[in-house]
Amino acid sequence: MALDVRPAPGGARVAPPPQRRRWRTRLSRLDVSLSPYLYISPFYLLFLVFGLFPLGYTFWVSLNHWEIIGGHEYIGLQNYSRLLTDDQFWNAVGNTFGMFLLATVPQLLLALFLANALNRKMRAPTLFRMGVLLPLVTSIAAVAIVFTQIFGRDYGMANWFLHFFGVHKIDWQANKWSAWLAVATMVDWRWTGYNSLIFLAGMQAIPRSLYEAAAIDGATRIRQFWSVTVPLLRPTIIFVTIISTIGGLQLFTEPLMFNSGYMNGGSLRQSQTVMMYMYENAFQRFQYGYGSAVAWMLFLLILVFSLLNFLIIRRLSRGAT
Amino acid sequence: MRVIRHRGRIALAMMLSATLAAATACAGDDTKSDGGADQKITLNVDDFGTFGYQDLYKQYEAQHPNIKINERNVPKLDDYTPRLQQWIAAGAGAGDVVAIEEGIMVKFKSQPDKFVDLKKYGASSLQGNFIPWKWEGGMSPDGSKLIGLGTDVGSIGLCYRSDLFKKAGLPTDRDAVTKLWPTWDDFIATGKKFTGKVGGDTKFIDSPETYYNTILMQEAGKGSNQTYFDQSNKFVMESNPAVKAAWDETVKMSQAGLANGVQFLSDQWSQALKKDAFATAPCPAWMLGLIKEFGGSGQSGKWDVAGIPGGGGSWGGSWLAVPSQSKHPKEAADLAKFLTSPQGQIGAFKAANNLPSSPQALNDAAVKAFSNPYFNNAPVGKIYGPAATSLKPVYLGADNQEVRQAVEADIRAIAQGKLSPGSGWSKAVSDAKKASGTG
Amino acid sequence: MKAVIRRRTHRAVAGSARLWQASPLTYVVLIFGVVLSAFPLYWMFVVATRTNAVVGAVPPPFIAGQHLGANLRRLFDNEQAHFAKALVNSAIASAVVAFSTVFFSSLAGFAFAKLRFRGRNALLLLIVGTMMVPVQMGIIPLYMVMVHVHWTGKLQAVIVPFLVTGFGVFMMRQYAGQAVPDELIEAARVDGASTFRIFWSVVLPALRPAASVLALFTFMQTWNDFLWPRAVLNPDNPTVQVSLALLNSAYFNDYTLMFAGTVVATVPLAIVFVVFGRQIIGGIMDGAVKA
């Protein structure tokens, strides 16, 4: 696949004087052997300094009692053992997974459904694709501001709308379920269209002949969707789910803004995520060591969960075939 | 060909967004030109809430043509202090003059080297300008350095909506209203009467946590002069009767259905204020400015100020300090001296009703005679002034702010009906321990 | 001519057989989806054009008012929000990060796809590995580093760590593999061109389609970044997102000011979206097939 890039011996051009030529050959050889490393080095350098080192150092900090003022003291795994019995931490873990599931499951189903609709011969397909992608143009902070107003307790649009159905004013921030639902709505609104385009790409790669064969066998459209489309989309579904997992477990901006910028996520920490708990410990209580332990636990959770996801989805979609 | 056009268009669009941003920026910036002047020093002032310094800045800039003052206000105290801590610890980012609220003062005083000793800049002679305990409060723990100059003190009144009181058939005159509630239990009884008559979306009190803090500071001032921590920063919340008393009284209010569960200084609080959704709020002097700011002109004249149940108390109040990271410590110290001088405190009182910590200012005829039109011409100078000199300071430990926030969250959860009053107290204690890093 | 080519590629992607015809129901579903996507944006705009009298209005306003200009003026005149500065900061940071990411990613992608060197496969695998690492996890020490080099509160703190990403390198490597013919490089080499010369005048032009998609996505991502800027920047030198958060926690009583801020923060991305909608869609769909 790669090309042999060594210069051809004895160029066909007019030869320069011998000494200059030797110098040039040497330079050119140096160019060929060093350039690749030179070109890839910026990434590694940057990742080393701003990615790997902080991550490793986070681990070291997490082994210390480390506050903003004064020195630090090595305490081994004490921060971690404290974390394991910290109900606020587990509450944050529960919230993160709760909101993640509440957001991701409907989101992926909706995106599949939407992609299926987009995968038709129609007028102005680009217009519709752009239409469902529209939420991407705005920033998360702006989304959070708008939706927080929509979910206001006393004068929000959601409660105004629900009162037509006889629903009494919901204090969205005060209940766990309603806070999760509000945050999940923000996430879904933003990402459903995006994911549906990814699914659409996957669907377009499925050969039509499979559907024709299924149709001859008498399978309905719905049946075709579940027994042809979904199984063949497996790689795409795995990809989207893992990306959603990595993003979803780091949920931060939406619940933070939803709680008027308070890191605790509500009076009973109804919607505090792990990321917010990390931030609260590190940048408000200034317990860097403990905050770093939270960061590492989250890192491990993301790894484990991505793997779990991968296995489950592979099993599930295989079962469907 | 298409490919090349793409790249051109992308570069074009990015340029366009960048220029657009820059253009709008310039359009917005042209109001404040700082070019041209020779060697102007810009002093950044970090503060929170409403300090009422705008006119004083103008006055100071007029007297000192080489100084430009840039106030960097963060409205919420709870947003402000973590940032300030971060800047002070990082050794960069803090303003030249910073406001330090009483709840965080102890923590900062434990790092005296992070601040300039104001005595070195001629502040020693100013002792007589301050109530003794306010002056003491600005000294480093060993008493060798002067870290902060006092701004205001937080003696407490009680704000009420006279129009809503009228609707409930309650007296509206401020002296008569004060007589309604010698104790907090009387206050709750009044609230029940009010709720029976008015009802609907209008609650009697605003946020439970404002009442909780008020009663806590009041109780602490009567007894041990401490809240969650004792003077050696030992956690004493469980054994301190003041905390329990404030907790129980606030829970009673929530159980009586008086509380609007909104969080103090949240958008729901300000909406509730505008939409007549609460009829009273505890009013340390600094609160008057906040109610005026967030209530807007629509509420003007509807509010009034009465006495607080259960006797006097103090909540809030700040100092001005100069971080040692400031590049202009002398100029900054001079500005801090000016802002906290009797005349500066009188100016801040007139602008935002922040109650002076200077006896001269408190005795000033203009302060004594000052009445606030927004609060139905309540004579706030007369209501707040006399109590100020007799106040006793309450010791707030180093982790006061974190603990306060944790307990406030539980208080609010009870008002929201999400936490049972029975198990609330032990949860609050354990949350408080966690917040202070001792749990 | 161009239209024909585009159609043909579209059909090739769409699969061998013909697509089903969309039914009226499909249109209804899609229109409903588009309306749901657009409504919050529309409503954001509506509130930004009203006065604060809309707070708590029942029913909520659904039609634009006439106060957009006044609200924008108040937004830019507000000395605490530093919104103008925030816009400039975000524009600079996003543009610099986008251009730099494209440049360094193309360079590395070219090296991985077309140059032969020792350890190439292992190093490439390492890059794929880094894509799985959520960099945000390291913000505590990253912050300590910034304190140490006195970059807290400064714009470079949100630029320098993100000048090139593993994702970008990987994407450009995939694209370079198929888009740059080996013969072209060989010919340039025979002509005595240096490696960088080859990159600059042969490879980079061929990478343009992928490079523009990468630039767009990086621009949008940087524009939207929040967690790190909030930690490291100060309120008086913010990015747009940090300034929005400040508005949200400070001017919650000034509803229309806040919404004017969200509108202004959205405009630059909306421009990008309108001009490049097609490429963005193509980029998202291409990325999916490859991953």
From TrEMBL, chain A:
InterPro entries: ABC_transporter_permease, MetI-like, MetI-like_sf. Gene3D superfamilies: MetI-like. It comes from the Bacteria. GO terms for cellular component: plasma membrane. It is a multi-pass membrane protein. Keywords: Cell membrane, Membrane, Transmembrane, Transmembrane helix, Transport. CDD domains: TM_PBP2. It is found in: Cell membrane. Residues 93-309 form the ABC transmembrane type-1 domain. Its main location: membrane. The keyword Transmembrane applies. One of its GO terms (biological process) is transmembrane transport. The chain crosses the membrane at residues 36-57, 97-118, 130-152, 191-211, 232-253, 293-313. Pfam families: BPD_transp_1. Belongs to the binding-protein-dependent transport system permease family. This is Cellobiose transport system permease protein.
From TrEMBL, chain B:
Gene3D superfamilies: Periplasmic binding protein-like II (3.40.190.10). Keywords: Signal. Residues 1-27 form the signal peptide. Residues 430-439 have a biased composition (Basic and acidic residues). It comes from the Bacteria. Residues 420-439 are annotated as: Disordered. InterPro entries: Bact_solute-bd_prot1, SBP. This is Cellobiose-binding protein. It comes from Actinoallomurus bryophytorum. The lineage of its organism: Bacteria, Bacillati, Actinomycetota, Actinomycetes, Streptosporangiales.
TrEMBL record, chain C:
Its main location: membrane. It comes from the Bacteria. Residues 87-276 form the ABC transmembrane type-1 domain. It is a multi-pass membrane protein. One of its GO terms (biological process) is transmembrane transport. The chain crosses the membrane at residues 25-45, 91-112, 124-146, 158-176, 197-220, 255-276. Signal peptide: none annotated. Keywords: Cell membrane, Membrane, Transmembrane, Transmembrane helix, Transport. Belongs to the binding-protein-dependent transport system permease family. This is Cellobiose ABC transporter membrane protein.
